[in-house]
Automatic annotation (TrEMBL):
Segments passing through the bilayer: 122-140
Protein's UniProt name: Septum formation initiator family protein
Keywords, sorted A to Z: Coiled coil, Membrane, Transmembrane, Transmembrane helix
Coiled-coil spans in chain: 32-73
A Pfam family hit: DivIC
């Protein structure tokens, strides 16, 4: 028959393992909250970038078809005089050359973000060490109590 100290040791190991898998595991609460937070920020970036993309496509369509708008834009950015002539060259469209801007790169420094949280791997390692020492300490403490009762 197992002693009380062994039962308490295994029970504390079970509780610490259960806490690890529920909170710190691959599908635990911490990882899910981080993923939900990053998903929300990525969705915000996607909406913002799609709106910006529509604006730029509209502007490109206008500049492609309207010579007056093209001259106005060129004067605005290149500081051309009123009597300067603008020569428009036709280019072949290479869709494959366009590289999209990834929203994850824009996410590096976002205002209003909370303090940085250490990576989940460090938290897991720290918790495993802490739980191991706690379980061993409980086992030793319970064994000493057993020895104290047997000596009396």
């Amino acid at each position: 028959m197992t002693s009380l100290s062994t039962k308490v040791f295994w029970f504390s190991c079970f509780l610490s393992g259960l806490f690890y898998f529920i909170v710190l595991g691959e599908s635990g609460i911490v990882v899910r909250s981080q993923l939900e937070e990053s998903l929300a920020s990525l969705q915000l970036d996607v909406e913002r970038l799609s709106y910006e993309n529509r604006q730029l496509e509209e502007k490109q369509r206008i500049l492609k078809n309207d010579q007056v708008a093209l001259e106005r834009e060129a004067r605005r950015f290149y500081l051309l005089s009123e009597n300067a002539q603008i020569i428009k060259f036709r280019e072949t469209e290479n869709v494959g050359e366009l590289k999209p801007i990834l929203a994850s790169r824009l996410n590096a420094f976002r205002p209003g973000k909370q303090f940085p949280v250490p990576p989940i791997q460090f938290i897991r390692i720290f918790y495993a060490i802490f739980a191991s020492f706690t379980c061993i300490g409980v086992f030793i403490k319970m064994r000493k109590k057993k020895l104290d009762f047997s000596n009396n």
